[in-house]
Queue: 2 jobs
Job 1
Amino acid sequence: MASPEFPSDMAFEILTRTSLETLDACKVVNKTWKNLTYKLGFMQVYCHRTNNILGYFVQSLENNKYVTEFVSMDDCMGKDPLNLPVETLNKPEYRIFNHYRNTKIEASSKQGILCCVRRIKNRNHMYYICKPSTREWKVLPNPKTRYRTVKIALVVLKSSPLHFKIIRLSQDSSPPRRRRLGLGNYCCEIFDSETYAWRQANTISLPYDVFFESSCLPINVSGLVYFLTDDDHVLVLNYNGKEARPRFSLPEPVIENKNYTDKKLVEYEGKLGFICLSSNEMLELWCIDNTRNHMWNKEKEVEIETVKSVIKYPSPVDFYDSDIALMMGLDKLMFYNEQNSSFDVVKLDRWCRRNDPVDMDIEKQEHPVEAQDLERLLEEKSSLYAATSFTLIASMDRYPLLLRARVSRTI
C-alpha cells in the first residue's frame, strides 16, 4: 500500500529546522522536498530558524594581492558588509586571505572545502586545502608546476572520513621549440586525499584554436565536472580526469547569435545550467534535465531594466534560489527577485571593487570545532558537515570572481 503524500507545509516546517547534512540528504530522497528547498524564501526562513547567515564572499585583487569581503543578503539595506573572521585575526598564522599572504582561492566544493594557492618566492606556489569555517588549513604537495595552471576543480567524494579530489588542467606555455605539450593539449593531474599524492591522468585535447573560457569556472553537477570553452561548447570530465562524454554545444540560439554575452555555467536546482545576456539584454537561464542527450531547455527569460537603473554594467553570475538572480556591477552586488522586480543591493568596499565572489551559509554551532579537525577528518570517521556548497563562478577584469558556498562558522 502506497504511503500518503506528506503535506508540503509540514515538510517545510521540518526541513527549515534540520541540519545542513540532513537537508542535502532530503533533496536526494524526495523530489518534492528537493523542489521545496529551492522555492523563494525557503533559505531565508531556514537561515533564520537555524541561526545561519547566507551571503557571498568576494575575492578581489589589490596591488597584486588577493583580499576578501563577505556580504550577506540579510545585511544589504544600508549596512556594512560582513567580513570572514580569518581576515580580522591578529595572528599571522590565521591570515589565510589577506594582504600579507598572497593566497588565491582556486576551487571550492559543496562541502565548504577550498583549494587555495599561495605564491611564494622565485615564482613558486604552495597548495592548501582550507576550511574557512574553522580557520584551519593543511599544506598539500605541489603538482608539477612547470606548466601554467588553466583550470582547477575540487570535488568531495565522502565527508566521513573526508575524501576529496582536485583536478588540475595545465598548459605548456614554453616557446615552441621547448614545448613538450602540443598546442591545444592540456596536462591533467589528479590529487587524491586517500593517497595524498598527485598523479598524471590522460592528456585533454582541444582544437588548437579553442581555449577554456576564462570567465567561467568548472561546475560540479551529478558526479561530473563541466568546463566551458570559448567556442561555446562544454567539456565533461569524470572525477578521474577522463572525458566522460563528447563535447556538446550551448543552446542553439546562443551558437547562432554572436551578440549573446556574459556566458556562464551554473548549478540550478541541482541541474547543469547556463546563464547569459541575450542580444536584447534579457537574462536567460537554460538547463539540461537529461545529461545523456544534453538537450537545453529555456527555464527563464528575465527583464533586467530595473537592474540597469541601479547598477552600472550588470552581469549575471548566479541564481541565489529559484527566483532570485545575483547580478554584479562595478562596485555593487544585487539580489534581484525576478517575480516582483524587488531587489537588495550590497555596495562593496573600496578595496574589493572591480575584481574577484563565494556563496556562504555560515552556521552557528553549539560545540566549537578544534583547529586540528581538518587533519583529523582526513584520517578518522567523523562528519565534515560544518560547511556545504562552494562554486567558483566568474573571473573577468571588469567583474568580481564569485565563489558560491554554504559555510558554517562557530560564533
Note: Helices lie at 8-15, 20-29, 31-37, 42-50, 252-256, 305-308, 373-377.
Job 2
Amino acid sequence: MVRIKSSVSVNNEHFKERDRTTNYYYAKSGLDGLFVNKTNFTFTKSNKKQNIRKMRILQEHQLDFIDPSELLRPEPTFADKQLSKFRDYSIDENDPLKERVRQTYRLMHQNQTVDFVRSRHERWLKFNTLKATVRQALEKLNDLIDESDPDIDLPNIVHAFQAAERAREEYPELDWLHLTALIHDLGKIMAFYDEPQWCVVGDTYPVGCAWGESIVYRKDSFEGNPDGENPLYNSKYGIYKPNCGVDNLMMSWGHDEYMYQVLKHNRTKLPDIACKIIRFHSFYPWHNGGDYEHLTRPGDDETKKWVLIFNRYDLYTKSEKIPDIDALWPYYQTLIDKYLPGELDF
C-alpha cells in the first residue's frame, strides 16, 4: 500500500478516506491485496470500486510497501530472529506476510518477459516523467513507506541515511560510496507513476535466457510466462553469448535498472562501479546464489565484490535508531553537488 500525506496525489486521485489515528490518507498501490495497517479499520469510496476496495486490516504487521528482496535477510547481526528465519521463502498460505511476498514474486515471474522489459525501456528511458533534484526525489520517496521488516516502520529516507552513514563509517574516504548508499533506492519513485509493485521491487535476474535455479520460488512461479516456451529465450545462453559479461544482460525491470539508467542519462560523475552497485544490488541469483557464472567475464568479480560490500549497508542497517537527518543534510548535499548536481531527468 502507498501511504501518503493529504497533500500528495497518487494516480491523479485524492482519496477522502483518512485513518484518523495517523492522519494519513490511503491510495491505490497497483497490486490487489496490498492494503494493510495496524488497526482494524475498513473503508470504501463510493463509485470507485476499481480504485479502492473494502479492506481487512491486519493487526500484526504494518506493511505499506514491501520490497521482498530486502525481507528476512540472512544476517545474524540484524534483528533478533533465529538465523533459520532469515531469507525464509517457504510457502505458508496461512501466513499473510509470506503469502503476500509469494504473490508478488508470482506476478513478477509470470509477467517479466523480454517484450515486457523492452516496453518498460520504451516507457521510462525517455526520462520525461519528472525533473527533480536528488533531495527533492528523496523527499518525494519519503512518502512511500518501504517496510522490509514487519517490525520496523521506516520511511525510505531514514533507511537511505542509515545505509549512507554505515558506508561512511566503514569507508570514510570513499565519499562516492556514501552517496551511492543514499540514492540506491531512488528508482522506487516509479511507484508514484502507475507501476505495480512487482516491477519496482524484488530480486532481479536477466530475461532472455533460462531462469537461474536459485531464483526464489523458482520451481513453479514462472508457470505461464511465455518466454519459458520460446526456444529463443529458454536455453542456457538464450540471447546472450558465453561470457558476455553482466553489463550486457537485459535485467528484469525494477528500481535497480531504472536508477542505473537515470544516472547514466544524467551523466553522473559517480564512478562506474557506483552505478554498477545500484544496477546489480538486487541481482541475488548471481551474487548470492551462484547462478549465471557462464555469462560473466573478467572484471565481473570486482563488481560482485562491491555489491556484496554495499549490501551490508543496504540490508542490515535498518533499525529504530533514527539518524539526525537535518544535521546530516549539509554533508550529503556537498556530495550531491559534486556527483549529481542540479535537476535530474527521471
Note: Residues 94-144+151-341 form one domain.
